[in-house]
Design brief:
heterodimer, A: 89 residues, mainly alpha, 65% helix, globular, B: 166 residues, mainly beta, Jelly Rolls, six-stranded antiparallel beta sheet, four-stranded antiparallel beta sheet, 46% strand
Chain lengths: 89, 166
């Protein structure tokens, strides 16, 4: 999965500001500083996706597509950030 | 000579069909009605006022605002006006254009994120404003301006237009 282009990074940055949950607070950063963090996050995903893939156990690693692995990554990360509520909660 | 003040309340703002700030009413002990200006897309609100007893000179526009989430950074506010003299101007009012924007950059003073700030903007592009004109005042956050660095929404609670009378 390719890194986001400039337009998609811009839209990620803009929407993140709109959707930022109040319960986790806002870091003391400006718009350019947040944009740099968005870019760095995408760069990190691009640089480390092979390592993430290698960490996944079989048979999931071989059976899942890249979007499916990305979806799983996002759900685990959202739960860690307190943004994923399960029916069991 | 005295100063005339005209207060522009968020509840009386007018909007075009796109790119307008959301109107919300928050506040725990007092109602805080505000227009929520997006940090990434320029949004604008409009007010129509009559330039009662306007004599000459620039307009001052005080913009009272606070941050939704941030506690640092700068906000760039932009004001444009369109002045029409009833019974004199023959311009189609529905296609009337606005004068060039004037801007002001206001810095978040920190300490408390949602503290109230006042940005003071001088409108020098007056669109040939004359006494008793109908004036459309457009207030926008210039979100695409490189100097607008504050993350999150900027919330306008009140704008005040003032000028010297006759």
């Amino acid at each position: 999965m390719a890194a986001l282009d400039a337009t998609n990074r811009l839209r990620t940055w803009a929407q993140a500001m709109r959707d930022w949950p109040t319960n986790i607070g806002w870091p003391a950063v400006t718009k350019p500083e947040l944009r740099a963090a968005v870019d760095a996050t995408d760069d990190w995903i691009e640089a480390n996706q092979a390592g993430f893939n290698a960490a996944l156990p079989q048979p999931f690693r071989g059976a899942a597509t890249v979007p499916q692995k990305t979806f799983l990554f996002c759900y685990v990360a959202m739960r860690r950030a307190g943004r994923l509520r399960a029916q069991e909660d | 000579m005295a100063t005339v003040y005209q207060q522009l309340d968020p509840g009386s703002a007018q909007f075009l069909t796109t790119a307008f700030p959301q109107l919300k009413n928050l506040g725990t002990n007092i109602p805080v009605l505000g227009l929520y200006y997006d940090p990434a897309v320029e949004e604008a609100a409009f007010w129509l006022v009559r330039a009662v007893n306007y004599s000459s000179g620039n307009l001052a526009v005080d913009i009272d605002w606070y941050a939704d989430t941030a506690s640092s950074g700068d906000v760039v506010w932009a004001v444009r006006v369109a002045a029409v003299t009833p019974d004199t101007d023959t311009q189609d009012v529905e296609t009337k254009a606005l004068a060039t924007a004037n801007t002001v950059t206001d810095t978040h003073l920190g300490t408390v994120g949602q503290r109230l700030h006042r940005a003071v903007l001088t409108v020098t592009n007056l669109d040939d404003l004359a006494a008793q004109d109908d004036v459309w005042v457009r207030v926008a956050r210039d979100a695409a301006n490189a100097a607008d660095t504050m993350a999150g929404d900027a919330i306008l609670t009140l704008a005040t237009v003032s000028y010297s009378d006759v």
